[in-house]
């Protein structure tokens, strides 16, 4: 999906505009664990296009002087976005920080759309003229607080999107991303697994310019490692900010089928790991937990078991994810990684025949009667699988509200006990039909 970044000085109204663009969807996103709660990154839609929006204001480095912050924002936007929306304040006119940002954006040659905010009515359009002098094209009058002018601005943004192009990988290719904070050993794992086998390093049209994927084949299966470029780049200021790496991770998760959540055995699990894993879960990706640097900790015969228990306790929502203990350094158990990826990917794509599914659910109901509420009993009439990646099941029932969480859990457990769903989330959806 194309990426739109919103850049501008503090208090010009970036977040208001961000919220307008992402609209009601924020409510849904906000329910997700952690990361997106601060509305740094979300989905937008306009006409027939889907895109991601970044509010670079969320990435402000707190104790930096304004000009430095602005440079960081602009650089992040240049790095990440297909189109940059530069917001200025129509009532305040051009400031030196605006000029500075305009200069950086202009040099980058990225498409920039200039939004002049706080222009709340047409009488104020005279305010626009001075903004031509920024040298980045037509100023679009907008009012974030009144929701005015955004349509025209978005029309202009869409004109600069790359042609609709999904990653053009063969659908049988398994796309893997390695997620985890810096220094857990992601690059080392990739290097240790692939060695000299790296076949192609490709630039993918329609994605952020510098997303570099690595494709390779192992045992007749094609794989792509998503955006390993992000792992290689080091040393820039924003790399060190936590939010930046989250952003990178979210984008990689979005483009992958299987997510490897990499944890450093020496440091254990931190909040950040949970947030990102939560996002992968919500996004319906197949997930494997990889505990790396296993060579570096003192072990006895109980260590692995204890570690596993800790992970299970911390990642309750990932009870389906296999856990691998690896060392990129000694190559310990690295040979299990790709076969596990392949297995969970197959599970992610599993289709259960409808008759088998219905027999199973009828047996389950006989074993554990459906819940009742106010004298009414849930009746499951028919079940059908409607999707894969992840497998999703629609339950046609008399009253959808009667399918309580605990019973849904029970049904999910029955499905998992019967079919091979290791590594994949599954979705259960209740629909009313008598
Ligand atoms: P990334 O930021 O997640 O890509 O992490 P790197 O792959 O760059 O690794 C960070 C540091 O950890 C480097 O110094 C690696 O040599 C070291 N490292 C990576 N994997 C292992 C491992 O399995 N065992 C040990 N002892 N060190 C590791």
UniProtKB/TrEMBL annotation:
Answer whether the UniProt record assigns the keyword Cell membrane to this protein. Answer: no
Q: Keyword set for this entry?
A: GTP-binding, Hydrolase, Nucleotide-binding, Repeat, Ribosome biogenesis
UniProt: GTP 1 binding residues? 8-15, 55-59, 117-120
Q: Which GO terms describe its molecular function?
A: hydrolase activity
Sequence positions that bind GTP 2 = 180-187, 227-231, 292-295
Q: Which domain of life is it from?
A: Bacteria
Q: Where does the EngA-type G domain lie?
A: 2-165, 174-349
Which InterPro entries does this one have?
G_ENGA, GTP-bd, GTPase_Der, KH_dom-like, KH_dom-like_a/b, P-loop_NTPase, Small_GTP-bd
Q: Which Gene3D superfamilies match?
A: 3.30.300.20, P-loop containing nucleotide triphosphate hydrolases
Magnesium found in the keyword field: no
Q: Which residues form a coiled coil?
A: none
- Subunit organization: Associates with the 50S ribosomal subunit.
Which NCBIfam families does this entry report, sorted A to Z?
Answer: GTPase_EngA, small_GTP
Role description? GTPase that plays an essential role in the late steps of ribosome biogenesis.
Question: Which PANTHER family does the entry mention?
Answer: GTPASE DER
The similarity annotation says: Belongs to the TRAFAC class TrmE-Era-EngA-EngB-Septin-like GTPase superfamily. EngA (Der) GTPase family.
Q: What's the protein name?
A: GTPase Der
Q: Which source organism? A: Alkalihalophilus lindianensis
Per UniProt, what is the name of the gene that codes for the protein in this document?
A: der
